[in-house]
Structure formats: C-alpha cells, structure tokens
C-alpha cells in the first residue's frame, strides 16, 4: 500500500505554486500519494496548469494560513482551520503517514505537539538538521526548536538523532559527538559538561566532545547541541555555502584562463553545488513527536519539496519512532522527563 503524505501547500516564501510543483514531481517519481492542504480553489487551478490529473494527488481545504511572522502559540490557538493544523489533523486521524511544511517552523512544531503529542521519554521534540560531509551525512540536533536546554534534553536529542541516522542512513552504531569548544571532557559550559557525563554512561556509541571544525569532516555521524547553537551553525553553513559559490563565480569571471578552467571542470563544479545544496536533503525532520514531520526551509523550491516528501515517506516506511523507543529502552535509567507543558517547552525558542 502506497504511503500518503500531507503537504502544507500554503506555507513558505515562494507561494503554493512551488509547493504544488514539488508534489507533482514527487508523485511522478514514486508511488506516493500526496494531499495538498490549503485553499482548494487556488491549489486546483495551479494543479491544472501542470496538466496533471493524477489520482494520487488530493486536495483538502483549509480556510486559514499561518504567516511566517506570527507567534506559534497564537497561530495554533486562533487558526484551528489553518493549513498546517489541518495537515496534522489528517495525520492524527490516520489519513496520512507524515506531514511536510515549509511554513512557520514554530507553528509547525507546535501543531505537531498539540495534535500528535510527544513520544514516551521525550521532554522536548526537536529539529534535526542534515549536513553533507567529506564522508557522508551528519545529523545535528537540535537546530532551532529549543534554545534553553538541560542535560537530559541534550541526551534525548542524541538518542533520537542516532535512531534517525540508523534507520535513514543504514548505520549500525552511529558515532555520537557533543558539540563543544574543545575535545577534552572538561571543556565547555555547565550544560555541556553535565551532558557529557550522561552520554558517557549510555549505550550509545559516544566518542566525546567534538568541535565546530569537525562538522564537515565526516568523523562523526551525530552532533548534539542546544537549539541556539544548532541554529547558528545551520545559518552559518547556509551562508558559507552561498558565499563560496559566489566567490568562485567572481574568481572565474576575472580571467580567460579561469573561464577555460571552469569549462574543463564544469562537471565537478555542478557536483559540488549539488552536494552543498540544502534542497538535496529536502528539510529537517521533527523528532520526538508521535508521528512523522518535516520542516522545510522557507525558500524551498520544488526539488526541495519533492525531496522532503521522499524523506518523510522514508521516516514513515522505516518506522523511525519505533527505533527511537528501542534506543530509549536501552538507557531507561538515564531518561528523565520534565513536567512542563509540551507545546510551551518545545517551541519556546523556535527560530523562524
């Protein structure tokens, strides 16, 4: 039976045209079903412009849209018929297997927690970023959902990210590192030091502290940090990749020899650009919710949306949450949950 993904077709900076295009690509390249959630009159017209009448693309009406600059709490409280709330409502009732959104990330996470709830042992669901490295992808968690954390939260991030890495990238024992200002166990702030002690007692393949310069080397599979540090890393990496491509373009344009060299190495440049393009990974998985969700970049193009739909389907097909619970069971003595209200805790520091 084909998996079914709900797409918040009204979120994002590029408008529904780009999102619908991504859904069309996804259904053309797979047997997935996609429900486009939003203004069905507008979405239907866009879909018709693609000349497709695929029975695997469905329209689900939602009368409201959450803006990118709206407060997540106010949005999910006031706009119960928004496209993002409607998408997760479909997931809750079992009509779809996962949700993808390029809209307000805070509202996306808040809606997921409100309608689906948290996994057992999870105090704070988070957002996992995926980065290319010299040797393979690395998963960093958290990259923006929780800016103020306690050691048990970072430990939970490590467990969830390790489970995701196992299932999606086929790693038996992912190497887990704690992002710090030095490799020595005594380095870092109080949060990092206490988190280091927790990881040392766990059954995870914990290799110790890692530094920011290690991110792209490929010698670690999972990097753990709080959402403040993770979001800075995320935005810095995006900016660096764009700047490097821009600098290369400027240097190539300076001389005939450089232009000739580019022509000879064009395939390598194209491959490099594709390797560092966030669109290739589609989006960032929401881990720790009782379901499957992907948060996409607000600027996501059709290719990014297509890939996000693919990753969401892989999460559902491979039962990432089952693996997360299995890993938690191995270290149940280390797992602590706080009793704070789920939505309030989880999205208190979401970066839009």
Q: What is the CA-based Rg, rounded?
A: 20 Å
Topology pattern, helix = H, strand = E = EHEHEHHEHEEHEHEEHHHEEHHH
User: In percent, how helical is the residue content?
Assistant: 40-55%
Mean pLDDT metric: 87
- Total domains: 1
- Which band does the percent of strand residues land in? 5-15%
Q: And the CATH topology? A: Isopropylmalate Dehydrogenase
CATH homologous superfamily (4th level) name: Isopropylmalate Dehydrogenase
Task: Give the helix/strand class.
Answer: alpha/beta
What is the CA–CA distance across the termini?
Answer: 36 Å
**Could you give the count of β-strands?**
11
Fill in the keyword field for this structure.
Isopropylmalate Dehydrogenase; alpha/beta; eleven-stranded mixed β-sheet; disordered C terminus; 352 residues
């Amino acid at each position: 039976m084909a998996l079914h993904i709900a797409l918040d077709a009204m979120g994002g900076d590029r408008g529904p045209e780009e999102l619908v295009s991504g859904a069309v690509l996804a259904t053309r390249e797979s047997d997935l079903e996609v429900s486009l959630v939003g203004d069905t009159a507008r979405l239907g017209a866009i879909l018709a412009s693609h000349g497709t009448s695929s029975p695997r693309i469905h329209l689900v009406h939602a009368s409201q849209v959450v803006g990118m600059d709206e407060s997540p709490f106010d949005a999910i409280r006031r706009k119960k018929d928004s496209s993002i709330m409607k998408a997760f409502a479909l997931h809750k009732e079992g009509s779809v297997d996962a949700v993808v959104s390029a809209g307000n990330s805070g509202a996306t996470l808040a809606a997921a927690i409100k309608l689906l709830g948290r996994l057992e042992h999870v105090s704070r669901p988070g957002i996992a970023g995926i980065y290319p490295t010299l040797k393979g992808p690395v998963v960093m968690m958290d990259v923006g959902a929780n800016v103020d954390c306690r050691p048990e939260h970072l430990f939970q991030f490590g467990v969830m990210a390790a489970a995701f890495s196992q299932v999606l990238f086929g790693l038996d024992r992912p190497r887990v590192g704690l992002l710090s200002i030095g490799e020595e166990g005594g380095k870092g702030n109080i949060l990092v030091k206490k988190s280091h002690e927790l990881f040392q007692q766990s059954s995870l393949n914990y290799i110790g502290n890692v530094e920011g310069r290690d991110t792209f080397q490929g010698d670690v599979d999972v990097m753990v940090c709080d959402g403040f540090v993770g979001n800075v890393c995320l935005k810095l990496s995006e900016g660096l990749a764009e700047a490097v491509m821009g600098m290369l373009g400027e240097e190539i344009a300076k001389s005939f020899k450089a232009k000739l060299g580019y022509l000879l190495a064009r395939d390598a440049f194209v491959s490099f650009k594709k390797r560092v393009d966030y669109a290739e990974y589609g989006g960032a998985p929401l881990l720790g919710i009782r379901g499957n969700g992907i948060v996409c970049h607000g600027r996501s193009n059709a290719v990014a949306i297509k890939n996000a739909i693919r990753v969401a389907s892989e999460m559902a097909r491979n039962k990432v949450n089952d693996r997360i619970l299995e890993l938690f069971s191995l270290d149940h003595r280390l797992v602590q949950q706080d009793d704070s209200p789920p939505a309030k805790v989880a999205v208190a520091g979401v970066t839009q």
